Amino acid sequence: MVSRSSLPSVVWCMPSTRWRKLKKGFPMAATDTIAVVTGKNVARIDGPLKVLGRAQYTSDHNVEGMVFAVPVCATIAKGRVKKIDSSAAEKLKGVLAVYSHSQNGLAPLYRPTEEEGFAFKISEARPAFEDDVIRYYGQYIAVV
Question: With the CA atoms of 88, 91, 93 and 99 taken in that order, what torsion angle do they form, in degrees rounded to the nearest 10?
Fold first, then answer.
């Protein structure tokens, strides 16, 4: 396995217009600093384990009592959810619950405000089950 000690002891970086040599461990948090490693062989600590098939991933861990969720996606590109009849799904073996926008326990949802500095962020990210509006094909409308 590759260790951190086998990595280069110095890193060359370029702040703004001149080159300088940094010692190992020096924080490179400045916004105008670019680490020059493109095109170089850089040892990845987890590389050998991944290549040999021995790496542990999040999905490899099973915890007692762990459950899984499966999203239900919209099959139309625009519209509204009038009703979700989950009675058949709830009767299936292994199904613990079905959640959608109509469950009382999911509200209120957090929305950033102007005072927090995020109100004008341009993003299509929305809280799951925000309302009954379908805005795009594949939008999550429920979870089983």
Answer: 70
Q: What is the per-residue burial (b if ≥16 Cβ within 10 Å, else e) of 3-35?
A: eeeeeeeebebeeeeeeeeeeeeeeeeeeeeee
**H-assigned helices in 60-134:** 87-91
* Distance of alpha carbon 71 from the chain centroid: 16
Give the SS3 label for residue 33.
Answer: strand
Dump pLDDT digits (tens) for 14-40. Answer: 444 444 555 555 555 544 445 666 777
Domains identified in the chain and CATH numbers: 4-58 (no CATH), 67-144 (3.90.1170.50)
d(CA 6, CA 2): 7
For the full predicted model, state whether its pTM sits above 0.70: no
Q: Indicate the helix (H) or strand (E) that contains 47.
A: helix 47-51
Closest CA to 112 of 132, 98, 126: 126
